[in-house]
Amino acid sequence: MKKSLVSAAIMAAFAVFGVSARGTWTILGQTYNVDTLYHATVGPGTVETELRIEEASGGGNVNNIFYTVTDLSDPYVEMRAAKAGNHMRMLETVPDIAERMTKPGESYFAGVNADFFNMGEPYNSIGMCVADGFLTNYETDGADIDPYYIIFDADGVPALVRHIDRSWTGNVIFHDGDSYPLLVNTQRGEDELLLYTPQWQFYNWWEDVMYEVGHTGTNQYGVEVRLRPVDKNVLYGSSLSLEVIGDPEEGVGNMAVPSDGYVLSAHGAARDYIRALKKGDIVVASVDFSADGKKTSVRELLGGFPRMLANGQILSTPAYPGHLSNPEPRTAVGYNSDKSLLYMLVVDGRKAGGSSGVTQQQLAWIMRNIGCSDAMNFDGGGSSTMYVNGFGVKNVPSSSSLDQRPEGQPRTVVNALFAVAVAPVDNVVARIEMRDKKVELRTGETFRPVVYAYNQYGVMISTDLAGCSFEIPSQLAEVKGNDIIASEGSFSGMLTATYNGLVHSVPVNVNGGGEFVTAGIADPAVADESDPEYYRLDGVRAAAPQRGAITVVRRGSDVVKELNY
Fold first, then answer.
1. Cα(491)–Cα(372) distance, rounded to whole angstroms?
2. What is the pLDDT of residues 424-449, one digit of tens each?
3. Reduced to 3 states, what is the DSSP secondary structure of residue 378?
4. Are 108 and 102 spatial neighbours (Cβ–Cβ below 8 Å)?
5. Contacts of 156 (CB under 8 A, 6+ apart)
């Protein structure tokens, strides 16, 4: 019988997301040694992984990679775009956006910077941006990059597209069935009906006056009313039901827009429609939207450049801009072939954190290696930022002469993409997970485990849970309070953390490992069947591997111990 020690089990530790703890990648013909430095659940349906890849030839090319994988089928997580300052003319760091946007029941727990942008006023994104249903930016006219886009439709399904077409005129159907042409976030003209969002900020070029953000900026020659979405906030390519939440106001102008709603503003012939509205009335607004020639709904939309992967095929690098062929810090987004997993990734560069940086082609290979079939480049360089709630900025943003930041401090950016926990507030611990997924110790060395805690929805509620107890076979180590002190000899076994009946185990090697030590279990009997059989570490037969736990797997005469995620 072939026995596999815990080191082999760790090789399978990250099989769900296609990454082993140690292994090799081939990127543009060059072999890289890949070491997994960190892997943990950070929110509902979402894990974060940190890799260090190094040229096997010893050429000195080393890169630190940070990425999240989100299971889009998880009912308690959504992918959302977010605009800096929640309006058109502002920059903000990724962690500051997350902090500002987070509220009870909505935690912006993991995110990366997104679109390229103009670093001088008005801080416009290169591509159009739709954030949580609200149009926050138009595409920059005359930009030297023709952006690609990632969109999420009304059901949260992602797609990478080349061309988008948003109708400049939409439509509003009133409660009596009448309809009227609609414009969104622009200066109101004669006989026009406008829908204003909280991100709108009107600048009067003739008077050189900038109106306060979130106000219509209109004059007194009209009538306005506040509304709020009834259900999903999807205006573009869909029908958005809006409930009237205030009385119409006439002869005033410059109405404040609700932070979670809209203002409908009318002049001239359109005024009678607004005058007739009362609280509780429902109107239905829509604006046609198509992506690559196909009509679609869009709740989130972010630009980037270029697309790197399409149906698993790596695309050629455009000649412009030239930095795409240089090793630089990079940010990317992608998804797998059935669009069930969403990936956000950052590679450090410019020697920040000791990382060399990658070209756009190398980035494409990395995205394919972690499991993407389709991927797009976001803004990189000094903008590249990976944020995780509870830990802050995970990567080391590079310094820049453009904004005089020191190394490690995140740059203010125009927008970002986040995984958002959408779950009831709940601080009861329902699952635990140790931070370190493998532990290597020498005789006398002390290790203090760190335990993460999660509620029933997968939201992380503690990054260092107190009150845990720990067990480990005495041949490996001694438990003294919260410390694990390695014994003599070479052994491999399991360290188990327990909290209020919740259990999590990780493998431990002492002095390089050796005989696998697990109290109370013998190897399963050898069988000739080719179908796998699964056993818990206490010897009890299981129907399938348990997620997040060591499972003994027997396939014929081959018996291995595997850690499954």
1. 38
2. 999 999 999 999 988 999 999 999 99
3. coil
4. yes
5. 72, 78, 79, 299
Give the chain's length. Answer: 565
- Are 8 and 34 in contact, with CB atoms under 8 Å apart? no
Residue ranges of the domains in the chain?
2-6+427-563, 73-159+295-328+374-421, 170-287
Which range among 5-14, 431-440, 477-486, 487-496 shows the weakest confidence by mean pLDDT? 5-14
CB 529 within 8 A of CB 556: yes
Q: In Å, how far from its chain's centre is CA 223?
A: 41
Sheet holding 2-3, edge to edge: 2-3, 558-563, 550-555, 533-535, 541-542
The model's pLDDT over 382-429, given as tens digits with 9 standing for 90+, comes to 999 999 999 999 999 998 777 888 899 999 999 999 999 999 999 999
Of the two residues 134 and 203, the one the predictor is more confident about is 134
Kindly compute the dihedral angle of the four CA atoms of residues 86, 91, 97, 101, in this order, to the nearest 10 degrees: -10
**Amino acid identity, residue 97?**
I
Tell me how far CA of residue 127 lies from CA of 137, 187, 376, 379, 415, in angstroms: 8, 21, 13, 11, 11
The tokens describing 104, both together, are 């009870």
Q: Strands 107-113 and 386-388: what pairing?
A: antiparallel
- H or E element in which residue 63 lies: strand 62-71
Residue 275 and residue 265 in contact, taking contact as beta carbons nearer than 8 Å: no
Amino acid at 336: N
Closest CA to 400 of 365, 359, 349, 463: 349
Cis amide prior to 397 (ω within 30 degrees) = no
Residues in CB range of 453: below 8 A, 6 or more apart: 429, 431, 432, 460, 461, 462, 465, 499
Report which of 344, 269, 298 is spatially closest to residue 109, judged by C-alpha positions: 344
Average pLDDT, stretch 38-53? Answer: 96
Q: Say how many CA atoms lie within 13 Å of 563 toward its Cβ.
A: 25
Residues 6+ apart with CB under 8 A from 486: 441, 442, 443, 444, 445, 446, 447, 476, 477, 510, 511
Of residues 200, 250, 201, the one with CA closest to residue 224: 250
Joined together, the tokens standing for residue 198 give: 């909280």
Model-wide pTM > 0.90:
no
H or E stretch at 101: helix 94-101
The CATH code that applies to domain 2-6+427-563 is 2.60.40.1380
